[in-house]
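quick one before i forget lol
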Amino acid sequence: MSAVLRHMNADHNTDSLVIVRANGAPSASRATMTGLDGERGIWRVVEPEGERELVIPWSRPISERPEIRREIVALHEDALASSAPLE
């Protein structure tokens, strides 16, 4: 799990921001993935009101590492389809 979090936060900060904005934190200015399990991903979001944790469920339970990528990509694609571009 730590390798996934390092990769997401080092290489995909903008992608995380797109995901959290479309899933409950539309005014987020920053997003850091802090955890995940078989049911969900967890992000720390920074909004004008302050910081908070945002839990986003996967589309289906996962049990294998390759499924993590599939679920994050699906969240990102869904977010892009339903969101305005980042400013």
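fyi The chain has one domain: 2-82.
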